[in-house]
Design a protein that fits this description.
Number of helices: 7
Number of domains: 2
Oligomer: single chain
Shape: elongated
Structural class: alpha+beta
Radius of gyration: 24 Å
Length: about 270
């Protein structure tokens, strides 16, 4: 059975009954419209601005549009590629020609932006209720673009981001980098600012240690077991070559526990 748009909407937490699907096409606007139109090199900001301005004609655009807009860009004669999903908070202006809406980028389907391509059956139709578009076939989902590793000293991840990094192909270089080092790391509980200082040494590298947190939330640490990991933030304090003696890593770990006072006022027990 062919995959359609409907299950992807539901999986992203979008109720098709509360969503509008829009397909933009590359076109130049008439100068008197005041709009720049769209072209192949339009930026995200330009497409966003184009999206928030719609015709004042009730026949062209719904009087009370849905709160979620799933926006595609025309590709070929009968296909469309996902640009983004935006949330609509209502109309802010109507000059009789255009209606301007307050919209904001949404994280719905963010992992499918510029990757999801669907078939678009009626070529002259540019917007419809998502309940109708839900039956449109998924033509393809392109591989995600790799995300460059930011460097050990710039790495800061929430627990959700940690899980994503350990799972998705686009973070392959991150996992490779973390597999190449041992060292001392910090977990901050952002609700109260308390720190936990830990280490990965011996046969266990940083990737292996952090994968434990991604898998079971607490990594086996007694201090972290009762806490909600959604408020955790992971970062690296110091990395070492895997050949570094364990004693040197122990000294560094102890230093950071003292410096951050993570025994008395943090989450370390020793």
């Amino acid at each position: 059975m062919a995959l359609t748009l409907g299950p992807l909407l539901l999986d992203a937490g979008i109720d098709p009954g509360q969503a509008l699907v829009v397909r933009h096409a590359f076109a130049q606007e008439a100068p008197e419209s005041g709009l720049a139109g769209l072209h192949a090199d339009s930026t995200h900001a330009e497409i966003f601005e184009y999206t928030r301005r719609q015709s004042a004609s009730a026949r062209s655009f719904p009087t009370a549009p849905s709160p979620i807009w799933v926006v595609f860009i025309k590709e070929g004669g009968d296909q469309a590629r996902l640009w983004s999903v935006v949330e609509c908070y209502g109309e802010v202006e109507d000059n009789g020609i255009f209606r301007t809406f307050h919209i904001a980028d949404s994280e719905h389907m963010a992992d499918l932006r510029n990757r999801l391509v669907i078939g678009w059956k009626p070529p002259r139709t540019w917007r419809m209720n998502a309940t109708t578009a839900a039956s449109y076939p998924v033509v393809g989902i392109a591989d995600a673009e790799p995300i460059p590793f930011p460097g050990f000293d710039r790495l800061v991840l929430s627990h959700v981001q940690l899980q994503t990094m350990m799972r998705e192909h686009r973070y392959a270089s991150w996992r490779t980098a973390l597999s190449s080092v041992v060292g001392v790391y910090m977990i901050t509980d952002t609700r109260d600012g308390r720190h936990y200082v830990g280490k990965a040494d011996g046969l266990e590298n940083i990737r292996q240690r952090w994968n434990a947190y991604a898998t079971n939330r607490h990594g086996g640490n007694v201090e972290l077991r009762p806490l909600d990991p959604t408020s955790f933030r992971f970062s690296l304090l110091r990395v070492f070559d895997p050949s570094t003696p364990t004693r040197d890593i122990d000294i560094a770990e102890s230093h950071f526990k003292d410096a951050l006072d993570s025994r008395r006022h943090g989450l370390n027990r020793n």
